């Protein structure tokens, strides 16, 4: 057992960045999440931010002025930006609202530009397939913005599962949520159907699913029986609306604030999943991965934050005795790059050196298909088969 646990220890390496070859970067969508992208790009010595686009006139210009980035050409159309050959773009970050993910990604890939696409992948499975067709045709890197899987603790979770110490995995309990956490401070793009398409499912549910699916090696989903509700989002007395100064937001709420599902995967694995933006509970429970030789408990966090909420515990038997093995949580050292910085750096390296996408669509299509199937199952009030066509 000691040899197995040694394999879970942190193993960091330092890579030297070649700053002689600058990557010419554009940003499509200059809302809230774009601030994290530009902050991370500005830390990279081999990046030159040359363009930005936003549908709202003047918004891109104000965004780059706020970040003190000069000489950037701004557009009100992402398509116009990626097709402007004078920019000599290498790659773009797509930071738009959910329903614009697919068209913007397809336009950029068709223009021969590498793409870092913020999560969720898309809103529907059909949209994701069309993006993957464009990706295949272009031969460019397309990586999806799942930075939590680059967290040392998430890597440790996958190492444990893949080591075989838990035996055959047969059942997984996962999810997460917030007691009161509908993202209203960022306007209504997160909560309106015409912009978001999905709510808590897409915002934080995709992360919870990726944590366990990635650890399992991304087995194919087979069927989903799901439900989604909007009790809090549609409540005119929801305290979050009053706190942000917009009590009228309940009228605009058109997505899910809670979802749950029973998901069957290849290999006889079941996922019991639930996610919430708002609930009358402090936590929806720890993530537990059940195995025939041992089970792994992953403590929940108060609000999904891309890591784990405490030390991991393996429940197993040693010499006929039932025991618990604690695996300490890994904390970043001063000066370590953030998970977001790792997301940007690994994407840039993939583009520069012809490496595979850090978070490939071949995996995230399963994540997206589950989210979409939960929504469809809820609407149909029955279990649905997960169908993913060949590309």
Protein architecture, described:
The chain is α/β, with parallel strands linked by helices and 391 residues long. It folds into two domains: 23-147 and 339-360, 3-Layer(aba) Sandwich (Rossmann fold); 149-338 and 368-378, 2-Layer Sandwich (Dihydrodipicolinate Reductase, domain 2), CATH 3.30.360.10. Helix content is 31%, strand content 23%. It has eleven helices and 15 strands. The strands form two sheets. The protein has a nine-stranded mixed β-sheet. Helix 6 (125-138) links the parallel strand 5 (114-118) and strand 6 (142-145). Helix 2 (32-41) packs across helix 10 and helix 7 crosses helix 8. The longest helix has 20 residues, at 361-380. The termini are far apart. Residues 1-5 and 8-14 have low confidence and may be disordered.
In short:
With 391 residues, this protein is α/β, with parallel strands linked by helices.
Key phrases:
391 residues; alpha/beta; Rossmann fold; Dihydrodipicolinate Reductase, domain 2; 6-stranded parallel beta sheet; 15 strands; globular
Query: Biggest β-sheet, characterized?
Result: 9 strands, mixed
The arrangement of helices and strands along the chain is HEHEHEHEHEHEHEHEHEEEEEEHHE
CATH fold-level name of the largest domain: Dihydrodipicolinate Reductase, domain 2
Q: What low-confidence regions span 5 or more consecutive residues with pLDDT below 50?
A: 1-5, 8-14
CATH superfamily label of the largest domain: Dihydrodipicolinate Reductase, domain 2
Tally the beta strands: 15
| Molecular shape | globular
Strand share of the residues?
15-25%
- Which strand order do you get reading across the main beta sheet? 14-13-12-11-7-10-9-8-15
* Structural class determined from secondary elements: alpha/beta
The CATH class of the largest domain is Alpha Beta
Helix content: 25-40%
Report the CATH architecture of the largest domain. 2-Layer Sandwich
Count of separate structural domains: 2
């Amino acid at each position: 057992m000691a040899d197995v646990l040694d394999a879970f220890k942190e193993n960091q390496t330092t890579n030297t960045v070649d700053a002689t070859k600058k990557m010419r970067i554009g940003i499509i969508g200059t809302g809230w999440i774009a601030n994290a992208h530009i902050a991370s790009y500005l830390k990279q010595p081999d990046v030159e931010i040359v363009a930005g686009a936003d549908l709202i006139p003047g918004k891109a210009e104000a965004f780059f002025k706020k970040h003190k980035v000069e000489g950037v050409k701004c557009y009100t159309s992402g398509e116009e930006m990626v097709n402007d050959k004078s920019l000599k773009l290498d790659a773009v970050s797509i930071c738009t609202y959910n329903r614009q993910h697919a068209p913007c990604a397809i336009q950029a890939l068709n223009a021969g530009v590498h793409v870092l696409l913020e999560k969720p992948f898309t809103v529907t499975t059909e949209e994701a397939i069309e993006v993957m067709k464009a990706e295949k045709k272009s031969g460019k890197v397309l990586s999806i913005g799942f930075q939590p899987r680059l967290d040392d603790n998430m890597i440790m979770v996958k190492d444990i599962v893949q080591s075989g110490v838990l035996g055959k995995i047969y059942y997984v309990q996962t999810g997460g949520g917030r007691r009161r956490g509908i993202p209203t401070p960022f306007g209504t793009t997160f909560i309106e159907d015409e912009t978001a398409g999905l709510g808590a499912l897409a915002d934080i549910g995709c992360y919870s699913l990726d944590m366990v699916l990635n650890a399992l090696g991304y087995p194919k989903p087979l069927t989903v029986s799901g439900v989604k509700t909007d009790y809090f989002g549609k409540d005119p007395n929801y305290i979050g609306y009053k706190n942000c100064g917009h009590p009228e937001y309940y009228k605009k709420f058109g997505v899910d604030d809670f979802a749950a599902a029973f998901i069957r995967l290849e290999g006889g694995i079941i996922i019991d999943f639930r996610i919430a933006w708002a609930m009358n509970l402090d936590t929806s429970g720890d993530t537990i991965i059940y195995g025939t030789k041992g089970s792994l408990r992953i403590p929940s966090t108060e609000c999904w934050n891309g890591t784990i909420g405490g030390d991991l515990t393996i429940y197993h038997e040693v010499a006929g005795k039932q025991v618990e093995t604690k695996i300490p949580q890994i904390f970043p050292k001063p000066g370590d790059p953030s998970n977001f910085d790792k997301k940007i750096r690994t994407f840039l390296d993939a583009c520069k050196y012809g490496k595979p996408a850090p978070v490939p669509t071949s995996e995230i299509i399963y994540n997206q298909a589950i989210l979409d199937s939960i929504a469809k199952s809820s609407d149909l009030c029955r279990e649905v088969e997960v169908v993913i066509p060949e590309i």
